[in-house]
Amino acid sequence: MGRFESKVVLITGAGSGLGRAAALQVAKEGAALSLVDINAGALEDTKEEVLAAAPETDILLLEANVADESAVERYVSETVGKFGKIDSFFNNAGIEGKQNLTEDFTVDEFNKVVTINLNGVFYGMKHVLKVMKNQGFGSIVNTASVGGIRGVGNQSGYAASKHGVVGLTRNSGVEYGQFGVSVKAIAPGAIMTPMVEGSLRQIGGDNWQEVGKEFVSVNPMKRFGKPEEVGYLVAFLLSTQADFINAAVVPIDGGQSYKY
Questions:
Q1: Can you give the pTM of this predicted structure?
Q2: Does the residue 258 lie in any domain?
Q3: Based on the structure, what is the number of domains in the chain?
Q4: C-alpha separations of 217 from 17, 144, 221, 257 in Å
Q5: Could you list the residue range(s) of the whole structural domain that residue 116 is in?
Q6: If I label 260, which of 9, 69, 147, 247 is the partner at 20 to 30 A Cα–Cα?
Q7: Is the pLDDT of residue 209 over 80?
């Protein structure tokens, strides 16, 4: 039996990247899945991959904008309505936003990134924590970033939002540990996802792969991480094996956070 037999795992940003990788991993270990994304087509693609790897998986697909609290409340209530509980929540949806010096960021662009990356995480925590408190158990993993524990040039909106995710994680872990709920975050570095590729294309255009080589040169391991490597970590942190890891932020960045 896998670590997630009879468990229900809710994942946002499940249509690609880290969300899809985590969905695949926990499904292989027996989880029932509630998958949320703003892109319905991408959700269908994730479902196909999951069923190819774990054909018996019970999957609920929910199209929702995490920046809309009413949509968040709906995806939580529909998950509980179908499965009766939420054992684990990977609060993952986010965007990178534009690459600009702080002085060149427009207010609209800054607000867009913060609304999705920070408010969306807060809305998810607010409504899932209610469920988990009433259950008396549960695990939440938020997606922060290396940009949430150090500065990242030309990404003020992203860094501000991810620093906020770190603060929310630590605060909620302190608040909800007494109710049997653990809250932690991952801080990925250079992981080759569609979002990261889009960011590199924004900088380098057709030469984005050369920009990518420079991007990982600050990483002691000199390579991009793989989404499945993050999926393994998330699966562990969502499992009951990691219940005593609380109010913590776990880097997965090849050592980038610790390099001077």
A1: 0.94
A2: no
A3: 1
A4: 22, 21, 8, 13
A5: 8-189+225-252
A6: 247
A7: no
